[in-house]
Write the structure tokens for this entry.
Amino acid sequence: MSNIPETGRSTRVQTRLVVIQVLVLSLLATLGGRLWYLQIRQGDEYAAEASGNHVQQVVQPAPRGSILDARGVALADNETRLVVSASRTDLLKMKDDGKAVLTKLAGVLGMRPKDVMDKVRLCDAETPQPCWNGSPYQPIPVTDEATPKQALQIRERAEDFPGITAEPMAVRRYAAPGKANTGQVLGYLSPVTDEEIKKAENTDSPFLRSDQVGRSGLERQYDKALRGKAGVTRYEVDNLGRVIGEAESDPGVPGSNLVTSLDARVQRVAEYELNEAMKAARKEMDRNTNRLYEADAGAVVVMEAKTGRVVAMASNPTYDPNAWVGGISAKDYKRLTGKESNYPLLNRATQGQAAPGSIFKVVSTSAAVEAGYDFDGGYDCSSSYSVGGQVFKNFESASYGSIDLGRALELSCDTVYYRLAHQEWKKDGGNNPKNPNDYFYEAAHEFGLGKETGIDLPNEVAGRVPDREWKQKYWEANKDAWCKSGKKDGSYVERLAYEGCLEGNKMRAGDAINYSIGQGDTLVTPIQMATIYAAISNGGTLYDPSIGKAIVSPDGKDVQAITPQPHGKLPISKATLAKMDDALAGVATRGTAAWRFEGWPQDEIPMHAKTGTAEVHGKQTTSWFATYTDDYAIVMTISQGGTGSGASGPAVRNIYDALYGVSDDGKIDRKKALLPEPQAKLPAVKADGTIPAPKISKDIVKDLLPDEKASPEEEYAPIDEQQQGATTPTQNGDNHDTRRHRRRGGGRRRGAAGGSGSRRART
């Protein structure tokens, strides 16, 4: 027996104690090491971060630069308004998520509580407008139309309105000088999103959460220059939020001003004339469908012929961009994005696509000459042309015998182009081509069709040239659907699907024939056709259309001119171009547009034109009118509006009258002319950076009608067909009995009906 006294500890207990002691020592060592790392090794870094937690930033948004017309008139600028905003961060800290505060705020502002709450909710895929699509940490504007009395109530009773501010702020204003709306060209603003902030954080133009960003039009295209740089002031505060000093600050830089090539006066006239032409077309009966024309959309472009600069661009239906300022209402958002209003946010001048009809014949004429056909040769303008048992008729079945290509343009003779296109189709191998030349399709590409023009506006569409490559891709994408729905003896649509299933990738004779007169699957935009007709005017140079003319720094010391850029030449020799120019002058003097330019001073201001009437399956015809002088090119189109000269002709003539100051008797009054020659110089910039603007009347249209007492509805008046002069065959009901009540001198013009026509054909 051992003499050592019992301690009560077994070997197992002792082992456990040792393990625990080791663990405790290890934990203490780890903790000590971590404390050393944080306090010694990384002490300075964390001290700096802790210090930063006591620095608060105050952002002063930079005034956005103005958008000016070519003379310095503001199209978009800023005005000071009382803006009431709500902080979601503060509201969500409340037990009821701020509902009581917002309800009380609604009472002060005279709004419904639901409308206020809708404005401060965040947008997502399931939340309809109105909602906030900016940063949730940014103050959300509830209204920018608060009265001084309302703002004072909120500020004096701050304890009743936690999270609510009422401050004077610079708010975007779309001034519409002289009633020139310019909506689709200017675009609009909305708050920057978190995704945009993250995407731009490592660029040379990062966003702050308070920034507004351009969403369309010039506001988007030139957003970086217009936005400027917001100022940031940093304050040191204690734990209670009290300011104890001012840290470093970044001064704000105002946005630069954008001078455009637009003229607000011409813009107003273009918008007005387009709208009036569409209203008049809706009163005309379409004899093909036995119902009034719908005239549901339209566009007009006024372009400097020698530079490609855009003087005016109108799209209808249109909208007021001020609807987006301060947040858009649910009613306005539905109207701007709904089918019932026909999508007014779309700029039909750059995003509207349609078959061009006979204004495309300048391309076909060039292609024919390139293919070896003599411009001055004789070509049969028969009343019809038959291929494979199908008869392709000339418009109104007119027959003019043997004519040259110039006269074919003047009369818009379809059958001349049918024959030329069919002959080339056969030379290329017909249904079984071998190394086809495809002169007609290559010419369209060389004219710049099938791709963007390069205009300085976002989201331009490319149109379509239905060449062999496109046919193959289109067939591959649609073959299964065609084969499923097609029927050999079914309806028209079913028969087309049946044909497409079997040989939709083949370039058939009917495709070539339709294409030659701007029909079939060809699609163009008004800006593309304006670019082409401007190039014909200037001798063959295709310019990138441009609206921006110069970017002027806030202090006026830095002026960055935006120089017009050419992107190609028309594939026409000088000799052919001169002959085509003569023919298009003939269209305005003795051809299909002559009745619209009766009394025009042709010797002093040579006018050239081409009319177009494009057929669209299931819809009424599209009106096209393409024109140019030595100074300008003007192209107008009206969807489901009728003939080119009938629907669009009067409006285009009136725009030219306003530009040059032409009266009804052909006299030119330069004092009344809005822009007899393009504005070459930039507006003057003062030493302080301001750009003085000339005065502009409240409505330039009224100034142009000093002796005109007729209402807009009376400006289009029917005329007696028997009193019309006979220059070309009367059109088949497409606006043929409509002429415009002339604006200068109050006299009425008598003219013959005319226009171009095209017949859709397939074989």
Notes: The first helix runs from residue 11 to 41.
